[in-house]
Amino acid sequence: MEGVVLRAASGHFEVWLPHGERLHCTMWGRLKKEKWRSELVVAGDRVIVDRVGPGEGVIVEVFERRSWLVRREPGPRGRHFEDLIVANVDVLFVCVAATAPPIQPHLVDRLLVAGFLGRMACAVVFTKVDTLVDEMSRASAEEWAMIYRQAGHEVFWTSAQTGEGISALREALNHRVSAFVGASGVGKSSLLNAILPELGLRVGELDSKGRSGTHTTRAVSLHRVGEGWVADTPGLRDLALGQVNLQVLHMAFPEFARLPPCRFRDCRHLNEPGCEVKAALERGEIAKSRLASFHRILKGDE
Ligand SMILES: Nc1nc2c(ncn2[C@@H]2O[C@H](COP(=O)(O)OP(=O)(O)OP(=O)(O)O)[C@@H](O)[C@H]2O)c(=O)[nH]1
Ligand SMILES: [Mg+2]
Ligand SMILES: [Zn+2]
After folding, report:
1. Which architecture does CATH list for 2-62?
2. Architecture of the domain made up of 85-232
3. Of 11, 57, 133, 168, which has the maximum CB count within 10 A?
4. Average pLDDT estimate for 8-17
């Protein structure tokens, strides 16, 4: 029987079967040896299961993944371990809070690059827009939204509290697999609760300064929205990408990739003559923060 992994935790898997049944599964021993990733099977994986008892099964095969969100941890001898977070997602919804916790543009940009590398489309979701009560915070949030629109991403403007933008987001989740990702405390679980009121996911407070969340969600879980699926994920502190090739990284920044080519094919957009990216920056078509992220990712420092 073919199914979808809804949740994976230390060798135990909840698998959804197309007729709606959920099986509690373990994994077949031989499969464990064949796989090379630290996470053998993750939420979003399409699997074949054998039933072994009432409500119980065993995963005997994992289908090839069409997309993946991974973080790369440095390993021995310059190698990297790939830590798979979720599989087979069509659209990565990168969530940022309109006010608190403060936006971390570098984390957002890393997630957008990870989405590109993992073959997902990416959108940016502003959460908690009900907290934009003064002109300054509103102007700042709108400026960030502009930057990501300019980068070619669809931007959603939402509040789980007032319901603003929730139906547009629900619509966007239909007929595809999505994942909400971002820093802890930006309101990923709250958004899902607003979209699916019967869900009742646990949400957490921010720390006393409102600088960060308290890592409330502990595991990735997939939920049905209409004819689609959406994954809630634990808040990320950072997302190591490992070494990314210059040309590939350039492609991962859609507003860079749109420009005519720079004079030098291996232009790193630092101070080379004939650099189209620098020229676009001066014209205000590219944000400083985006080019800064590009350079940090290129250098490979996490
Ligand atoms: N004012 C306001 N607060 C919100 C909104 N959405 C979430 N919050 C608050 O933000 C805090 C964090 O929300 P969560 O949904 O737990 O955030 P999360 O992104 O799932 O966090 P992790 O699971 O730790 O990654 C909670 O105190 C929520 O009540 C919103 O639309 N408006
Ligand atoms: Mg959460
Ligand atoms: Zn250049």
Report:
1. Beta Barrel (2.40)
2. 3-Layer(aba) Sandwich (3.40)
3. 57
4. 92
Element (H, E) at 92: strand 91-97
7 neighbors 14 (Cβ within 8 angstroms): yes
Q: What one-letter code names the amino acid at 91? A: V
Every domain of the chain and the residues it spans? 2-62, 85-232, 246-299
* Token duo for residue 67: 């997309």
CA of 189 to the centre of ligand 1 (A): 7
How far lies 301's CA from each of 83, 107, 238, in Å? 18, 13, 11
Q: Give the pLDDT mean for 236-247.
A: 93
Ligand nearest to the CA of 162: 1
- Nearest residue (by CA) to ligand 1, atom 7, is 187
Read off the pLDDT of residues 100-138 as tens digits, 9 standing for 90 and up.
Answer: 999 999 999 999 999 999 999 999 999 999 999 999 999
Report every protein residue that has its C-beta within 5 angstroms of ion ligand 2: 188-189, 216-217
CATH, range 246-299: 1.10.40.50
Q: Which atom of ligand 1 is nearest to the CA of 161?
A: 31
* R_g over Cα of the chain: 20
Is the pTM above the cut of 0.90?
yes
Ligand 1 center to residue 206 CA distance, Å? 8
Q: Could you identify the atom of ligand 1 that is nearest to the CA of residue 162?
A: 31
Q: Answer whether the bond into residue 101 is a cis peptide, omega within 30°.
A: yes
Separation of CA 4 and ligand 2 centre (Å): 21
Torsions phi, psi for 204 (to 5 deg): -120, 165
Ligand 1 pocket test: pick from 188, 190, 233, 238 the residue with the most ligand atoms within 8 Å of its Cβ.
190
